[in-house]
């Protein structure tokens, strides 16, 4: 009857095996190199020790002794070697060259028959000089016993390490799929602290509590409290979620396990769950520590959205992660931090208290936050006297931390390309435009007719946006192609960060987007394909106004499909739309009406400001770029923006104003 070993016995046996394996010389150790050298010498000796001799049979060797062919003979315990007299020449024909060649004779060598005393008598009779070659006993022991045993131990150590497949031991072996691929960093290697994080002060304050617990857990335990097991960082891409997790580890001074959610899942069933177990086992051994899982949505998607009855490998991995987060002791100091920019697709079991029970939103920074982020990324950059980071922060609403870092880097590269002594204001402005509209393509040649159409198109955008009081202020107009498809662009940015938008502001933005098509109709007399991106952006805004914001004749109703995945059917198919076909037709009609109204307002504005449109288009054809100061000279002062009457607090739903489409160029 088989008996099952206890967990402690299994652990001791595994630790004993690991200890024995770790005591053996590894291939990268000095002793390993010595054994490899000895093995190489042994192979070399066995291959080349008999080179330069003629091997013959023992009887043939004795016949040569009787014939008196040898001048001297060497005798060993297991071989004999005979040397021909000096000056002997061997003459043999060369079959390939057809000539006779001469060569020095090779010594004759034969395996000696043990216990044969006749050879010595025969040598005495023929008066052949002979000598005995002694072999050291220590050398025999070394070559016969020590070297093979050492080589065997080395090979066994190598195979055991390949099977074990530990962290940092080279390529993953067949039996090491279940090992975690997390990158382990000590507290001194993260190199990041809260001083390196800016623009997300609320998130930093939330995570300071985690740091305090890891440093002084007694402060919380004396009152009976415990730190949350998991902290989920939510936010758009590039807002600094990974940086914030590294800063927590750097401030707390604890080991930091970092890996991506996609590293758990492999093509082999059960590998992801095994890696989760191994990750938490290693982290528990190094507690207090932090586990950081980036892109959690890769492994934490909602279950039961596939085919009924299916058993997905990702689902196994998620189940194991849920079990591990339930199982570890909150007093051990093991904290799981995860990041995602798609929280709506996460499984609800991950978000319940006891797992990721604290959710920290890492949003795009405001103007002050952007300025602080720019100051951090500009530490090692030499800025010119006219480079104002406050102005850059004002001109980059909606930019995330990664976008701002790229702006500073692009500005430094542009300054170096132009041989500037420092990064100037023009370099920063060009970097912002690269980030917004793409790379400038001055070498793209267009005929005069196309340039005229683009100039009037962009002038239409600029004039409508300038004359409507609720539209964003126009900062720059250009007819230089940028990016993949933009033949020109009008850069409009708000004067400050906005979190709510009125119906009037959205309608004016629609009219500004339709200004390009209206200008083509009025001043060119024909329409082109350049307004396609304008139509897409305008349609997106109109759809949001009708379906989510309640800003249409249909009234304050919400018609959008709910984005939460737990409202899907068991088969993973979207549920039916929550309104009738007649309502869907009314929604389409309202979207069309809003866009047509915007087009009509744009036509009326351009017809009233015909001279200014022509003046701006002529200036664009001459200089290709018109800045804000020159726009004000051509178009006059910007229409005043009244202060919105918002006296009550309101939590906006749907996309924020910084996420709404804004006109940047023509396609």
Write the layout of secondary structure elements.
Blueprint: H1 7-23, H2 30-48, E1 54-55, H3 58-66, E2 72-75, E3 79-83, E4 90-94, E5 99-103, E6 108-111, H4 118-125, E7 129-132, H5 137-164, E8 183-185, H6 201-215, H7 218-221, E9 230-234, H8 241-252, E10 256-260, H9 271-285, E11 289-294, H10 313-327, E12 334-340, E13 358-361, H11 367-377, H12 389-394, H13 401-417, H14 425-437, H15 448-467, E14 473-478, E15 489-493, H16 503-524, H17 532-547, H18 581-608, H19 610-623, E16 625-627, H20 628-635
Parallel strand pairs: 1-6, 2-7, 9-12, 9-13, 10-11, 11-12
Antiparallel strand pairs: 2-3, 3-6, 4-5, 8-10, 14-15, 14-16
Helix pairs in contact: 2-5, 6-8, 9-10, 11-13, 13-14, 15-16, 15-19, 16-17, 16-18, 17-18
Description:
By secondary structure, this protein is of the alpha/beta class. It has helices spanning 7-23, 30-48, 58-66, 118-125, 137-164, 201-215, 218-221, 241-252, 271-285, 313-327, 367-377, 389-394, 401-417, 425-437, 448-467, 503-524, 532-547, 581-608, 610-623, 628-635, and strands at 54-55, 72-75, 79-83, 90-94, 99-103, 108-111, 129-132, 183-185, 230-234, 256-260, 289-294, 334-340, 358-361, 473-478, 489-493, 625-627. It folds into 4 domains: 54-133, Signal recognition particle alu RNA binding heterodimer, srp9/1 (2-Layer Sandwich); 183-361, P-loop containing nucleotide triphosphate hydrolases (Rossmann fold, 3-Layer(aba) Sandwich), CATH 3.40.50.300; 367-437, Helicase, Ruva Protein, domain 3, CATH 1.10.8.60; 448-642 and 649-659, Peptidase M41 (Methane Monooxygenase Hydroxylase, Chain G, domain 1, Up-down Bundle). The protein is built from 20 helices and 16 strands. It has a 6-stranded mixed β-sheet with strand order 8-10-11-12-9-13, with helices on both faces. A 5-stranded mixed β-sheet has the order 1-6-3-2-7, with helices on one face. A 3-stranded antiparallel β-sheet has the order 15-14-16.
